Amino acid sequence: MRIIVVGATGTLGSAVAGALERRHEVLRAARRSALRVDLEDPSTLDALFSQVPDVDGVVCCAASGPLLPLDAATDEQFADGLRARLLGQVALTRRAIRYLRDGGSITLTGGTFAAPLAGGSLGALVNAGIAGFVRNAAAELPRGLRINLVAPGWIRETLVAMGEDGAAGTPAAEVARAYVSLVEGKESGKVVVPNSELAV
After folding, report:
1. Is residue 199 part of a domain?
2. How many folded domains does the chain comprise?
3. CA–CA separation, 39 vs 28, rounded Å?
4. 188: how many CB neighbours lie within 10 A of its CB?
5. Which of 161, 164, 33 is nearest to 17 (CA)?
6. What is the pLDDT of residue 196?
7. In terms of Cα–Cα distance, which of 49, 20, 24, 21 is closest to 36?
8. Does pLDDT of 197 surpass 70?
9. Is residue 11 part of a domain?
10. 198 part of a folded domain
11. Among the four residues 53, 62, 117, 172, which has the most C-beta atoms within 10 Å?
């Protein structure tokens, strides 16, 4: 299969692209790569599919964002976070529907908080929104297209880079296996939490 991985230069995106490349042709896209895409700039999404129109799958790993204090963050900061992390993935999906080959797949990225997190209200909002979107969109997709969501908790390598204890996170390679399974599988409308029994 021919698969676009958006956010392929990040920790998770690199792991996902590498895992998929073992059996598929992978086109790596990111803000600063030859195949440029920015979820906050819809024109780059249109350009992406104009450059590579014949693909079997799109995987989006570009969905990270800052922690924002609920009582101090501005309306603009919340709106920016929704635009980048939630609406950007929705915009990517809406374009992929038009360009993917019949039976193709879309795999998005959300997140999971094991417990309420200081500054995590925006993230919780995005996570719930993208999960709801995926579940409903699965019933609307034409031509046998599929859509799924991977919702990891902390990535081990990210925690280490932040100077935190990496033991509390899941290795990027393990999370990447969840993406590969969804891309290669037959499921649609699934929300998969790596390193968990939860797959709904």
Report:
1. no
2. 1
3. 14
4. 19
5. 33
6. 59
7. 49
8. no
9. yes
10. no
11. 62
pLDDT given for residue 53 in this prediction: 82
Q: In what order do the strands lie in the sheet with 100-109?
A: 35-36, 25-30, 2-6, 55-60, 100-109, 146-150, 191-192
* From 112-116, 146-150, 160-164, the region with the lowest mean pLDDT: 112-116
CA angle centred on 127, ends 39 and 35, rounded to 5°: 20
Of 36, 137, 55, the C-alpha closest to 89 is 137
pLDDT tens digits for 3-45?
999 999 998 999 999 999 999 999 999 998 889 999 999 999 9
197 within domain boundaries: no
Integer CA distances (angstroms), 132 to 21, 110, 137, in order: 30, 11, 8
Nearest to 33 by CA among 8, 13, 62: 8
Count CA atoms closer than 13 A to 184's CA, side-chain side: 14
Using CA atoms, how far apart are residues 47 and 33, in angstroms rounded to an integer? Answer: 14
Residue 194 carries which DSSP code? Answer: T
Cα(177)–Cα(147) distance, integer angstroms: 16
